[in-house]
Specification:
The protein has about 600 residues and is of the alpha/beta class. The protein folds into 3 domains: about 170 residues, Alpha-D-Glucose-1,6-Bisphosphate, subunit A, domain 3 (Alpha-D-Glucose-1,6-Bisphosphate, Chain A, domain 3, 3-Layer(aba) Sandwich), CATH 3.40.120.10; about 240 residues, Alpha-D-Glucose-1,6-Bisphosphate, subunit A, domain 3 (Alpha-D-Glucose-1,6-Bisphosphate, Chain A, domain 3), CATH 3.40.120; about 140 residues, TATA-Binding Protein. The protein is built from 19 helices and 24 strands. Strands 17, 18, 19, 20, 21, 22, 23 and 24 form an 8-stranded antiparallel β-sheet that branches. Strands 1, 2, 3, 4, 5, 6 and 7 form a 7-stranded mixed β-sheet that branches. A hairpin with a 5-residue loop joins strand 22 and strand 23. Helix 1 packs across helix 3, helix 4 packs across helix 8 and helix 13 packs across helix 16. The chain is globular and about 65 Å long. The termini are far apart.
Length: about 600
């Protein structure tokens, strides 16, 4: 198919005036190279759904690609779960990003066209609320329009199936096939949302036979907050001694619900918000990257806290599924931003300390991803709680939790190092609002019982389990081809068990792409193999683990290094030396165009001065 044919096809299907104008301008300018870039390849639907830059073309996020994706999803549900979709419906929501509500309204059109009932939550909602609502309504699926923490020019399309668990393989591939067979916009695909609202009002929106249900946001939001508060308060007992804190939603939707949750758990008088970042604003005017992991993202929060004499900061990302914490260290004038691993073990320690006797005979499980701290497994062993490692992503943790519950286990907590924390009593996805509630109550209990801060509590845990120092960061890759070549070159080298890597010796080698593990009897990994993504994990000596993987949503190659030692300085020195070995042994020889990025995902600031 020529560029001219692709252009003609786009203009035949697209009715969005803005994106039509983009393609028409490129056509008038005879910019064939840009038309090829935009139209030749489709944006791919996977376990992360869709995520990409908002602009015209089949390769990007726009109204037409959202319609096509939604038609594929609607057909998939029609063929695989039609009765549930027609009676229990599909939940649809959107965050505060530019175009999010418009895209979500196009999702509604496709679902209604196939006879599915729709629970329309509208715009300015939080991602974990959509997961919760999908579970509560017993819905066949949930769709959230969000790009989470990505820059302002991006947007995305996230899909949950039953129980509010993210879509995973093989269903992601099946949905992708349905999309390919439903590219032509259906009749009514571009219908304004107001048409459905007007129709529902004429019929009476409280009538349960109505296909389009809206005005239920307040009700489900209240149920969600109640569930959050009940769970968070179940982890503490007695009087508490909360610390005053500063909160920022980073221009996202968290500010619409977290203050209510904080009020309901009795901490409302202790919160001050960052005014310049409190209202939802998809342009993110004060932060170029609205990700609390990024260096500088919490600068305004720190200024606000200093101005008001507060030493604790909590933050959500724009769709409120991530949670971050910073604290001014006792006796110092500097701020310390906790890593996702550190927040994870702090939350886990609090939950483990306060676990009741299990109601199910098989007992408890806790989970974390393979790139997250191994410290959780040691803590679980101390408390007699089973632990399981999963692949990265809450699509895995949610599905495994659902399976474990079906087998008779209870799963109170799971986490991933990228500031993601799941509380299955609330929902089966990462949830920055519940994480904030639990963390604030935990901090209040530590202060009341032992007069310690979160920083102090972390030091106590390191004394018990050893200093688990981490350095999680990424390299910017110029394109997918460079990423693929890097991993191909690594695999072609002599990096097997027993070989040297820098000053270390490889004690175990695992390739989750090819399905190889040097330490299992049949050399097959215990975790599911994913041939569609690159992921290598090495264990060095007896106290080091690191993983290198290609990001599924961003042009990055991520690495995760952990060393554990009762001597903190030795653990820090070790992770620094591992990073130097990665850069010198792999990146410089095989991918010199990749650039190193600084983030706050390291447990010691000294590690960044390399």
């Amino acid at each position: 198919m020529t560029s001219e044919t692709l252009t003609r096809q786009w203009l035949e299907w697209d009715q969005d005036l803005e994106t039509r104008a983009e393609i028409l301008q490129l056509k008038d300018d005879d910019n064939d190279a840009e038309l090829e870039k935009r139209l030749r390849n489709r944006i791919q639907f996977g376990t992360a759904g869709l995520r990409g830059k908002m602009q015209a073309g089949f390769a990007f996020m726009n109204s037409l690609t959202v319609i096509q994706t939604s038609q594929g999803l609607a057909e998939f549900l029609h063929d695989h779960d039609a009765d549930r979709a027609a009676t229990n419906g599909v939940v649809v929501g959107a965050d505060a990003r530019r175009n999010s509500e418009k895209y979500a309204s196009l999702v509604v059109n496709a679902l209604l066209a196939k006879g599915h009932k729709v629970w329309w939550l509208g715009g300015n909602v939080q991602t974990p609320l959509v997961s919760f609502a999908t579970l509560q309504y017993g819905a066949a699926a949930g769709v959230m329009i969000t790009a989470s923490h990505n820059p302002a020019q991006d947007n995305g399309y996230k899909v949950y199936l039953q129980k509010g668990v993210q879509v995973n393989s093989p269903n992601d591939a099946k949905i992708s096939q349905y999309i390919e067979h439903n590219l032509t916009p259906w009749e009514g695909a571009w219908e304004p949302l107001q048409t459905h609202i007007d129709g529902a009002e004429k019929k009476g929106f409280d009538n349960s036979s109505n296909q389009f249900q809206y005005r239920y946001l307040e009700k489900i939001d209240r149920s969600w907050r109640t569930q959050i508060c009940n769970y968070a308060q179940s982890t503490v007992t007695g009087d508490l001694k909360p610390s005053p804190f500063v909160y920022t939603p980073l221009h996202g939707t968290g500010g619409l619900c977290l203050p209510k949750v904080v009020e309901e758990i009795g901490l409302g008088s202790h919160m001050i918000s960052v005014d310049k970042q409190f209202k939802p604003d998809g342009n993110f005017p004060t932060v170029p990257f609205p990700n609390p992991e990024e260096d500088g993202a919490l600068n305004l929060s720190m200024l606000c806290a200093d101005e008001h004499g507060r030493d604790l900061i909590i933050a959500n990302d724009p769709d409120a599924d991530r949670f971050a914490v910073a604290q001014k260290i006792p006796g110092r004038k500097t701020w310390y931003t906790f890593t996702g691993n550190q927040i994870g073990v702090l939350l886990a320690s609090h939950i483990l300390e306060n676990l009741p006797q299990p109601s199910k005979k098989k007992g408890y499980y806790m989970l974390n991803s393979t790139v997250s701290s191994s410290m959780l497994s040691k803590m679980c062993a101390e408390y007699g709680v089973s632990h399981r490692e999963t692949l990265t992503g809450f699509k895995w943790m949610g599905n495994i939790t659902n399976n474990l519950q079906g087998e008779g286990y209870e799963v109170p907590f799971a986490f991933e190092e990228a500031l993601g924390y799941m509380f299955p009593d609330v929902c089966f996805d990462k949830d920055g609002i519940t994480a904030a509630a639990v963390f604030l109550l935990a901090a209040a209990q530590w202060r009341k019982q032992r007069d310690v801060t979160p920083w102090d509590r972390l030091r106590e845990l390191y004394q018990l389990y050893g200093h688990h120092e981490t350095l999680n960061n990424y390299l910017r890759s110029p394109d997918p081809k460079t990423t693929a070549e890097l991993f191909e070159n690594i695999r072609a080298g002599k990096w097997a068990k027993g070989e040297r890597f820098g000053r270390f010796r490889i004690s175990r080698w695992r390739d989750m792409t090819l399905g190889y593990d040097s330490d299992t009897p049949d050399h097959k990994p215990e975790l599911p193999v994913d041939k569609s993504s690159h992921m290598l994990t090495l264990w060095l000596n007896e106290d080091i683990k690191f993983t290198l993987r290609g990001s599924g949503t961003e042009p990055k190659v991520k690495f995760y290094i952990e060393s554990w030692n009762h001597d903190q300085s030795k653990a820090i020195e070790t992770v620094c030396d591992v990073l130097k070995a990665i850069l010198s042994e792999w990146i410089k020889p095989f991918a010199p165009t990749m650039t190193y990025a600084k983030t706050m995902s390291t447990s010691s600031s000294e590690m960044l001065e390399l």
